[in-house]
Each structure stands twice: as C-alpha cells, then as structure tokens.
Request: fold
Amino acid sequence: MGRRGSASSSSSLESSNYPALSSRSSLYQHNRDLSTDLRLGLSIATSSQGNPSTPSVSESDWPPIKPFLKETLAAEENECNSATFFVKVYMEGIPIGRKLDLLAHDGYHNLIRTLDHMFNTTIIWAEMDGEHSEQYHVLTYEDKEGDWLMVGDVPWEMFLSSVRRLKITRADI
Amino acid sequence: MLRMARSLPEEVLEHVFSFIHSDKDRNAISMVCKSWYEIERWCRRRIFVGNCYAVNPSMVIRRFPEVRSVELKGKPHFADFNLVPDGWGGYVYPWIAAMANAYPWLEEISLKRMVVTDETLELIAKSFKNFKVLVLSSCEGFSTDGLAAIAANCRNLRQLDLRESEVDDPSGHWLSHFPDSFTSLVSLNISCLGSEVNFSALEHLVGRCPNLRTLRLNRAVPLDRLANILRRAPQLVELGAGTYSAELRPDVFSSIAGAFSGCKELKSLSGFWDVVPGYLPAIYPICSSLTSLNLSYATIQSPDLVKLVSQCQSLQRLWVLDYIEDIGLEALAAFCKDLQELRVFPSEPFALEPNVSLTEQGLVSVSEGCLKLHSVLYFCRQMTNDALVTIARNCPKMTRFRLCIIEPRTPDYITLQPLDDGFGAIVEHCKDLRRLSLSGLLTDRVFEYIGTHAKKLEMLSVAFAGDSDLGLHHVLYGCENLRKLEIRDCPFGDKALLANAAKLETMRSLWMSSCSVSFGACKLLGQKMPRLNIEVIDERGPPDSRPESCPVEKLYIYRTLAGPRFDMPGFVWTMDEDSALRFS
Reply:
C-alpha cells in the first residue's frame, strides 16, 4: 500500500483567520481567554504546531477493520495459498503425462494459458467458437462418474469438485 | 402544577413512569421536581453508562437502588482498530463487585469493550440469583473457565452472547457445565470462540431448550453437524452457521437442505466460513423470509452472491464482502426493496490493486433501488463527488453513513478534486444523519459543511483529513448534538481545542491520535476543565521528558463526575489541576 508522507501544509491559524472565528461565536468569545492564555502563558509558537506527525499508518490499524474479520480474511488467504489439487494431464500421442495444480489457477482462462504453455499448442475449450485448425487441441476432463466432458461448461468451482484428470486430444477427431 | 403533584399518590406516578423506558425521557422526568426525582430513581430498572469512567459505581448505586439491568461501555471505539494500547483500562471488576452487594436481583449485564476476568464471571455467577442475560461485546480478558462458572450457576440464564470477544478457550467442555435441568436458554452466541466445543453437549443443550431462538455457532462446527443441530431446533429465528464446507455429496446436501427447510421461522443468517458454493442451494428455500444476512466471513464470489440475494426479497440488512462487486449490488437494488442497512467489507484490505470490481457505482445503484436505505458502511478504493451527491439525493433519510476509501487522501478519481463537496451534499441532504465517517482527500471545507449542516450528528470519525485547526473548530462549534468525536492523523492542534473547551463537557468523549495537540495545551485544559479527564496516552515515555510544544501521541478527553481514575497504566497520564505543578 502506498504510504503517503505528511502532505498537508502547516496548520497556521494566522491572525487573518482569527477575525473569522471571533466574529461568529459568543461561545468563542467566552472561551477566548483560553487561547489568550495559550498565547500569553505558555508561549507556544504557532509554527511548531505546523506539521502533523508523520502518518503512523500500519497494517495493524488501517484500514479500520475489526480484528476478528482481519484474522478470518488472513486465514482464508493462507488456506487458499497453501491448498493444492494436482491432477494428471495427458496429451494424445505422448505417453508421459504431466501434473498440474488446479488450485494454483483462479479460473479457466488461467488454466488454459498454463496448458498452452506446458504443451506448446493452442487449446480449444468451451468458450472458444468458430472454425478451428486441425493443429489445435481440445481439452477434456474425466469427472467423478468416469465420463469425459469438454472443459469450460460448468462454473469453475463445480469443475474443481468433479474433475479427476485432464486429457488434451487432437481437434480433428 | 404543584398542587397536582402533591395530590397524585406516589404509586400512581410510579405506575405512569413504568411505561417510560428511554433514558432520555427518564432523565427528563427526574428533572421536573424533587419528588418526581425521588420517585423516578427508585423505580428506574435499566441504566446505561456510555463511558465507565464518567461516573463511579457508588454514585450510580446511591442514586438508583433498584436496578435490574446494566449496560456499560469501556474503551473508546478506536480500540477496535488497535489504536488503544493494551492495558489502557476498562476493567469491569470494580463495577461487578459493587453491584454484587447492592443489586442482588440484577438480571442483565451488557458490556462493550471492557476487560472481563474469570474472577468477574465467577462473581457474577454466584452473586445474582435471578441472572438472565450476559452480553459481552468486544470484551477480553476471560477464558472458558469463567464461562463454565456462568453455565454451572445461572439457573435462569436466557442469553449468553459473546459477540466478537476475545476468549481464551483451551477447553470446549464448558458447555457441559450447563446442568441437564437447565432449559431456559433463548439466545446463545459463541461465534467468536476459536476452538471446538463439545458437539454432543451442544446438541443436547440445543435439544433441551425449547425456547431457543438465536444460535450463533463458531467456525469449528462443521457442516455435517449443522443438520443435526437444526433438526433439534426448528423454531430458530436466528442462526449463525459454522464452517459451510464439505466434499460435495448428495446425501449430505439433502440432509442440510432438509434441515433448513424444517426451520420455518428463520429470519437471520450469519457465519458461513469457507463456503463451498455447491451447498448454497440448500438455503434457497428459506431465502424469501430472511430479513438479515451477515456474510462478512463468507468467501462467496459474485455470481453465487447474485443468485442468493435475488431470492431474498424481504432482506433488510446485508453485511457482505466486496466479492459482491457492483454487479451484485445492482441485483441487490433490483430485488431487495426493503433493504435498510448495507455493509460491504474489503476482502483484501492490504492489496495494492483492487482484486474485485467494486466501485462507487455499486453504492449508487443501491441508493437508487433501495428507498429505505438508511445505514451504510462501505469500503472501496475509488469515489467521486458526483456519486456522493447522487447518493445524498437518493437517500435523504440516511442516518448512518460510513465510507472508507482504503487508500488515505484519495481524491475524486475523475476530477482529482477533494471530496469535500460530495460529503457536503451528504450532510446537507440527510438532515437526520446521526453518524458519519469520512475518508478520501478532504480539506477544511468539508468540516465547514459539517458544522453548518450536520445538526443532528452525534458521532463523527475522521482520518487523514483537513488542513488546519479551522476544520476542527467548525465541527466543535457547529455540531450541536455531537457526542463522540474520534480523529486520527489530522493536522489539528491546540487552538480549536482550547477555543472550544466548554464544548467538550457537552460530549461523551473526544479521541485524537497522531494529531498536533501539544502537551502544554493538554496541561492547560486539565487545569481549566475540572470536569473533564484529559488523558495523554504516550508510549514514548513521560510527556514532560519532551518540550511542552511537542505533540502528544494520543489524547482521550471525556467528561466525568468521578475525577481522575486510579487504574491507569504507565503510559497514560491524566492532566488535572495539579498537573501543571507536577510536570513543571
């Protein structure tokens, strides 16, 4: 988070401001002795009040969220970071498969990008339409019931809960 | 009038007074004449002390001898955000000790931001024979041992609510201390407990309390236990689920769904840690009767949230993470026409870039669609003056408006101007506004607007705003009903404070941290204002080890009849008449 330095100008209540204050309020008149006291009795220079202390923003006190919520969010983030779900990925024609952590991806787009890279091809999945070249590959997955389906039809979370493994096959089949 | 007062017997007056419940009205009654004061003080049953150091227990007991219900608040609000160092104070034991002697028939104790010990809980458990209600909100200092004492001894307990308290809970067995004969529980909130409670003890307790209406479970209660609990308490009106996550299995799903459908009275849901979206449809059947939904811990993404809220047509209160995004708030605006209160919390408060698409537009949509909206707490990363003006115009009945733009001093992202005019519109149009929190780039002008228009404002929170003392002066001078003012990291110094010292006696409290109030000014205030406690909180060491012109770290000023307190830790100093001498 970009922490800004103390940017405000000095808070000088110059004498030119005083008339604005004093002309308004009898309350101010009544309390005027205090600021007079201040000026006479303690001789505090107005300039020394100029700079606000450097903003003491730390993650422990800003933004203003209660500790219970902060802990819960931190815990959930940690869980997300440490959980893994590796599945096997085979490309047709290549006997040796790969393994991929699905939880390291936050959705289909991310997953496809990784697979494109991993297998050096262009993957076709449910969101792509139009004519496809025979050079491309289709991404399918095996679900809990043993059926092979095209990747991308169901919401990501539902996909995560039912996928068993992935297969990349040639598009001309 | 005098003749009438003498001719009405005491019993009649007392009976009439028994219909008056609000503190304000009761206080007004007691000021009519001496005999009304006397009659009223003997029949006041509830007292509320907004600052436990404003008065001492013996004063309260002396004036009100027959109290049945006490509510006390301790630390200032900014303690919620770690701004008040540990050990500052707020100890409730002296109050309980005094009341144990004076109020043997005390039934209710509600505490907020106070330090409660096991010893205190044990004293409560054995001193009040008809004890019914214990609410510990954001309290700390006690463990499940203290709770075990309450469970074991309070035969008529109706409500045990630990909301957001920090409890040392080594053992989940305290629940088993409720005897088998105990059946009076109406409300139980243990959502803040970190460790497991004994599940069979919990199920048995729930099963034998037929009047149980509110049950807020903690995260450690897994989803498969929830169905059992719900089946034993189909009369529940308010439920806090525990962890809402399990492997997706049809048998578990139908068990949960069936249990929820059986709860025909459910109006309020909360909890829902670690949500597996596949289980959300289990609550769809009860959505249409929900009036309150607290999903602040639920990491549900926007599409599922949209599906959920669009079925909650009776919703009045929604607390949710910013995963709801603008699109979810549009759905809220379209389907939840009874919405009164909205709170949106940040899912990644420390991230540099936004992780979700939640902007000012979401709040604008809700203000357009939900005409009853009057209470808002909104965390976001961008705002415009135009959006605020639109919101102000759409919601003239707004009573609580708290906006937190996460990055301090963020301007209107389109015009790059300060947000003075936007907040100005809020205070101008929302004439009933009682609570306001500011954020973003703000100059003294916003305070001028506030002082001019916010005549009903009772609580104001300010951070990283303003240019000079003039800002503070506008607020102190103009806000006639101001009770609580809390300020951090603003360039406010001595002048406005000293010029408005008398105002401070009309308020409950003022908090200023990382501002520019000098030690000298604090001393002066302490000298001149004997009915205020001027507490300088400074962890750098004694303030007199630095020049008088040096600003204090933190300052807490509150009116009091009890004089300086004696339970201060080493980093808190009270300025009083003698302090000028003591510190020179």
User: Anything to note?
Assistant: Residues 6 and 53 of chain A are 7 Å apart (CA to CA). Chain A touches chain B through 60 residues (CB under 8 Å). The mean pLDDT of chain A is 68. The beta strands of chain A are 86-91, 98-101, 123-124, 137-143, 148-150, 163-170.
